[in-house]
Amino acid sequence: MDEILSLLPGYNCGSCGFKQCRDFAAQLKSKDDIQRCPFLEREMFMDNFEKLSELVSGTSSAEEAKIIGVIDGLEADFMLAPLKDECSCREFIHPFDGSVEINVGDFLRYRPLGCPVTHFAKVIDIDPGIYTIHMVGPLHRLGRDDFEFKDAGLCMILAFEGKVSRGKLPKVGQTVKFVPEYCMMQKVHSGMVVGVEGKDVRIEAIDLKVW
């Protein structure tokens, strides 16, 4: 128990429902229990979170199920799930064809550079030349024949924002391999982590041609 206690923030703030961190440490049995402490999801305590997870589960990270890309057989560091109450991870794309007029709310057909699959997405925000989208699927997933869209053509994928749902939480500045949960091919992507808040991450410098 002393080892677990040494990894807790030690603020005795009561946010977890216990008066002291010592009382909280005594009842830890799973990762879900650990998440009751709001401070352990902050970047400065990420290493402690991982060590506590190993201690309370009785397993090491190496013993956990590996995340393997289906199409390429590569091992990923984590699975990336949508942010809370969103339908897919946020993607930030740049169409090579700048002549297409795109507005918030439009549906796009596009193909990410480095991916053989045509995607469909809804535009949720716009910066000059950069479109934030939620992917809504390849067409067969939509289940409708009257689907109207604009053809954005070949696009560069600039960034992802999502939540780590399985695997090791990354640190800012770390180059990572990850699999978006909704990716039809379950293909390993790579990029650099530029933001971490709890389990929410932003990954830039995206490369779909991972070797």
Shape: elongated
Q: Using DSSP, what is the number of strands?
A: 11
Biggest sheet features: 9 strands, mixed
Tell me the β content.
35-45%
Spell the H/E element sequence: HHHHEEEEEEEEEEE
| Overall average residue pLDDT | 87
Radius of gyration: 20 Å
Task: Please tell me about this protein's structure.
It is built from four helices and eleven strands, in the order ααααβββββββββββ. It is mostly beta strands and 211 residues long. It folds into two domains: 2-63, 3-methyladenine DNA Glycosylase II, Chain A, domain 3 (Orthogonal Bundle); 67-207, no CATH class. Strands 3, 4, 5, 6, 7, 8, 9, 10 and 11 form a nine-stranded mixed sheet that branches. A two-stranded antiparallel ribbon has the order 1-2. The longest helix is centred in the first third of the chain and has 12 residues, at 46-57.
Question: Which terms would index this structure?
Answer:
two-stranded antiparallel sheet, 37% strand, single chain, 13% helix, 4 helices, 211 residues
Short summary:
Helix content is 13%, strand content 37%.
How does the SSE layout of this entry go?
Elements: H1 2-7, H2 21-26, H3 31-34, H4 46-57, E1 67-68, E2 75-76, E3 78-81, E4 90-95, E5 107-112, E6 119-127, E7 130-137, E8 150-167, E9 175-180, E10 189-197, E11 200-207
Parallel strand pairs: 3-9, 5-8
Antiparallel strand pairs: 1-2, 3-8, 4-7, 4-8, 5-6, 6-7, 8-11, 9-10, 10-11
